[in-house]
């Protein structure tokens, strides 16, 4: 039961595992997830450790799996979800089979991919040739046939003869569309305008064989005269990465060539289709097992990484490891080791020894899906010191309650309840969402916090009697109108005196008549401001009281008298007294009394009274009233202020003087303990399982001793602590006024949205009014969700978080520990999925 209030007890253990059983034993420990290993090879380079070859082998398998997964995603094949059937770590025989299978699959995929690229390159070339032949039909005419000669037709001597006789030559090809203008300008420059270029843009883009991206190209024909100019043009085409293709000048030859190209394209398309089908069949077969293989390789790699933390004994026959284990899980670890040895048939069992240590153990708070969100809020401030009181348990109630004080609206609370309940009821389905984004993960991780915040907001909304800025008359107003009809109609405002118009008390929450009152803001300000101070002082008193739990657990009994008592007295004698006077004022002053000093008009201001109390001043009361609420109040206030002032030097000097006077005796007893091998135990102390124990001067975690600290530093540290506590008591009390400020702002924003948006639609009439109300209601819903629920909810959440971190936890929480990070397959897989 104690583990609910503080972190679990930890034990430092030493493992002795046989090398043949090491892999299976660590695999069993990874499945349990309750062991945090320590690195015994800190000074050894990562590349010189025993199992570095196996880790590299796993890296190679992961590379192959990533390559195959990329190819699968490229084809749009969906990988199966195996969250409900996660495989265990593979044994060595399965590793060999898996490695062979992945090697074969990768080789086949690489070969298929290379063949596909080659065939697509051929397909692209044939397609470009077909486009050249088809688009150059308009570049030639029958009259030009006798005067043209293809650059790729006939022997070299014939070409030279033809060029010499004055016939025109030409080259045809395809070039990227964005390079056309530079290409055309370069041809004009090298030929001095003696090249005639015709071009035509292709309507349909072509696909890149390697990447599959679309490419926009242009067909061109360049006419020239002379062999030298021809060579220059070809060099320019090479520089601009233009593809040149043979193009006969004869119309019949071009038609024949187009037919041949189309036939070859059809054959190549058939081969490509068959290759794609074969590739899809291979990938579909592999995709069924790929997620399981990926998890198996990740587990195997994690096991070898963990084995690299072990140390080999001098005989090279045993692996030695050290780990932190929760004492409750020691039987689980023992069973995992025996199961690991039995799996390989090892005749020598593995051993687990608990060893003593003076190191501070890691902090481990066992959580479930409900408490995990609240624990994350606390850990974000700082991980608790070992065995320190855990505020998360109390935060489960105080956090949503203080949020609801600022977010008190029944309608808005119901929206949060519905959202939180949807995430809670459908959590199994929603947990499978992989790519929800960081914001969705935050909302889903805090689904129980949102649900509780909504429930508490519904409760405070009923107390405030506020539903979308309107009130509900559930029990009937307790205010009665004693004026006649003519008086009501002729006077713009009338006063309802409580002694004659108030009949009893509204059963629960605020009376709905305050919704119509002109002094509604004044009344709610006074009501919510006093509630904020009351809740704030109670919250701080609870925080200071929690320090007693830490002092008692760590056997720092002197700190109860030297720290807790003056702190709680200072808080209660000043601000606790102010809270008492609020309740006393509510009870004492009544409109139904005939005693004038106890009428509401004579009720003094608690704030002015508190200021006068601290400054020892008096304020003259109105005629017929009394300055104080009871007879002996001046003497009581002076006594409280003087006692509060006495608490300051008590906090300032008490602990340093205690350390100074007890240091000599502590040093003497500690010296004797060192001579006898630390076997002496002080009277009344109980040693921890790990040998880690607290002392009178230690911190909340029991790890910060003052024995070696100079007295001057102790005095300075205590002076800073005292000044901080005294000033923070005042500032933190004022800080709780944010409960009142945000509650007022939320109510006013809600009222503004109703009066300036939705009420406009409600005042419309006719068919246009129906359409207008439909549009205005949508706008009102949008503003309500975006501003009042989302933005105001986030603002209230952050203010509540600050009240817990600064005003509450600073009274007793140190947060100087480090988190328990066990070797867990589940944590490793979940962490990689989030990345």
TrEMBL record:
Domain of life: Eukaryota
Signal peptide residue numbers: none
Membrane-protein topology: Multi-pass membrane protein
GO cellular component: plasma membrane; vacuolar proton-transporting V-type ATPase, V0 domain
Chief subcellular location: membrane
GO biological process: vacuolar acidification
Disordered as annotated region, ranges: 686-707
UniProt key word Transmembrane helix: yes
Subcellular location: Membrane
Coiled-coil stretches: 95-122
Transmembrane segments: 399-425, 446-464, 533-552, 564-584, 639-658
A single GO molecular function term of this UniProt record: ATPase binding
Keyword line: Coiled coil, Hydrogen ion transport, Ion transport, Membrane, Transmembrane, Transmembrane helix, Transport
Family listed: Belongs to the V-ATPase 116 kDa subunit family.
Known function: Essential component of the vacuolar proton pump (V-ATPase), a multimeric enzyme that catalyzes the translocation of protons across the membranes. Required for assembly and activity of the V-ATPase.
Protein's name according to its UniProt entry: V-type proton ATPase subunit a
Record lineage: Eukaryota, Metazoa, Ecdysozoa, Arthropoda, Hexapoda
């Amino acid at each position: 039961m104690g583990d609910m209030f503080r972190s679990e007890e930890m034990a430092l253990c030493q493992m002795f595992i046989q090398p043949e059983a090491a892999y299976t034993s660590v695999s069993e420990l990874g499945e349990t997830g309750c062991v945090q290993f320590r690195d015994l090879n800190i000074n050894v380079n990562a590349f010189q450790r025993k199992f570095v070859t196996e880790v590299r082998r796993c890296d190679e398998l992961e590379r192959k799996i990533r390559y195959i997964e990329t190819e699968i995603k490229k084809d749009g094949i969906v990988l199966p979800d195996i969250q409900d059937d996660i495989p265990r770590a593979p044994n060595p025989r399965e590793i060999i089979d898996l490695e062979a299978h992945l090697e074969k699959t990768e080789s086949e995929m690489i070969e298929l991919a290379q063949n596909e690229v080659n065939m697509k390159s051929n397909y692209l070339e044939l397609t470009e040739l077909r486009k050249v032949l088809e688009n150059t039909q308009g570049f030639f005419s029958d009259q030009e046939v006798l005067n043209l000669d293809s650059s790729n037709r006939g022997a070299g001597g014939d070409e030279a003869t033809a060029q010499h006789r004055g016939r025109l030559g030409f080259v045809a090809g395809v070039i990227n569309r964005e390079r056309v203008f530079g290409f055309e300008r370069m041809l004009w420059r090298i030929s001095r305008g003696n090249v005639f270029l015709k071009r035509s843009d292709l309507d349909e883009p072509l696909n890149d064989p390697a990447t599959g991206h679309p490419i926009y190209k242009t067909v061109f024909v360049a006419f020239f005269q002379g062999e030298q100019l021809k060579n220059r043009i070809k060099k320019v085409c090479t520089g601009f990465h233009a593809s040149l293709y043979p193009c006969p000048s004869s119309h019949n030859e071009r038609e024949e060539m187009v037919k041949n190209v189309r036939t070859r394209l059809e054959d190549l398309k058939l081969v490509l289709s068959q290759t794609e089908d074969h590739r899809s069949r291979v990938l579909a077969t592999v995709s069924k097992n790929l997620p399981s293989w990926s998890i198996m390789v990740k587990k195997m790699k994690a096991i070898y990484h963990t084995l690299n933390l072990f140390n080999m004994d001098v005989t090279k026959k045993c692996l030695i490891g050290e780990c932190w284990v929760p004492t409750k899980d020691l039987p689980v670890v023992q069973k995992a080791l025996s199961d690991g040895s039995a799996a390989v048939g090892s005749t020598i069992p593995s051993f687990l020894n608990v060893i003593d240590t003076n190191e501070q153990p890691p902090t481990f708070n066992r959580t479930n899906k409900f408490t995990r969100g609240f624990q994350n809020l606390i850990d974000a401030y700082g991980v608790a010191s070992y065995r320190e009181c855990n505020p998360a348990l109390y935060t489960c109630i105080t956090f949503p309650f203080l949020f609801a004080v600022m977010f008190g609206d029944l309608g808005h609370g119901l929206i949060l309840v519905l959202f939180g309940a949807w995430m809670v009821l459908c959590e199994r389905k929603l947990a499978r969402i992989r790519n929800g984004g960081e914001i969705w993960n935050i909302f889903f991780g805090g689904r129980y916090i949102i649900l509780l915040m909504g429930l508490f907001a519904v409760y405070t909304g009923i107390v405030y009697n506020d539903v979308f800025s309107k009130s509900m008359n559930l029990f009937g107003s307790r205010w009665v109108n004693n004026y006649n009809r003519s008086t009501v109609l002729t006077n713009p405002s009338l006063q309802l005196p409580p002694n004659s118009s108030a009949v009893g008390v509204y059963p629960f929450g605020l009376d709905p008549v305050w919704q119509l009152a002109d002094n509604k803001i004044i009344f709610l300000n006074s009501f919510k401001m006093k509630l904020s101070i009351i809740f704030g002082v109670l919250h701080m008193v609870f925080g200071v009281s929690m320090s007693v739990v830490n002092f008692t657990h760590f056997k720092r009994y002197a700190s109860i008298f030297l720290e807790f008592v003056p702190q709680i007295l200072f808080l209660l004698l000043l601000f606790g007294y102010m809270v008492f006077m609020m309740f006393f004022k509510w009870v004492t002053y009544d409109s139904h009394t005939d005693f004038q000093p106890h009428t509401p008009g004579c009720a003094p201001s608690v704030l002015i009274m508190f200021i006068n109390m601290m400054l020892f001043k008096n304020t003259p009361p109105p005629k017929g009233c009394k300055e104080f609420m009871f007879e002996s109040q001046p003497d009581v206030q002076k006594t409280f202020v003087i006692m509060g002032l006495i608490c300051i030097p008590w906090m300032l000097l008490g602990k340093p003087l205690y350390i100074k006077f007890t240091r000599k005796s502590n040093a003497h007893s500690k010296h004797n303990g060192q001579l006898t091998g630390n076997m002496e135990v002080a009277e009344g102390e109980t040693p921890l399982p790990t040998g880690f124990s607290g002392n009178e001067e230690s911190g909340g975690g029991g790890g910060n001793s003052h024995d070696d600290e100079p007295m001057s530093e102790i005095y300075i540290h205590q002076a800073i602590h005292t000044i901080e506590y005294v000033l923070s008591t005042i500032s933190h009390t004022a800080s709780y006024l944010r409960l009142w400020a945000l509650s007022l702002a939320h109510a006013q924003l809600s009222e503004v949205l109703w009066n300036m948006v939705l009420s406009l639609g409600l005042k419309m009439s006719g068919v246009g009014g129906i359409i207008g109300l439909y549009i205005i209601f949508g706008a009102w819903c949008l503003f309500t969700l975006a501003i009042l629920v989302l933005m105001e909810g986030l603002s209230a959440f952050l203010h509540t978080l600050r009240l817990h971190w600064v005003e509450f936890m600073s009274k007793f929480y140190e947060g100087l520990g480090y988190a328990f990070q066990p070797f867990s397959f589940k944590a490793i897989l979940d962490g990689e999925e989030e990345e």
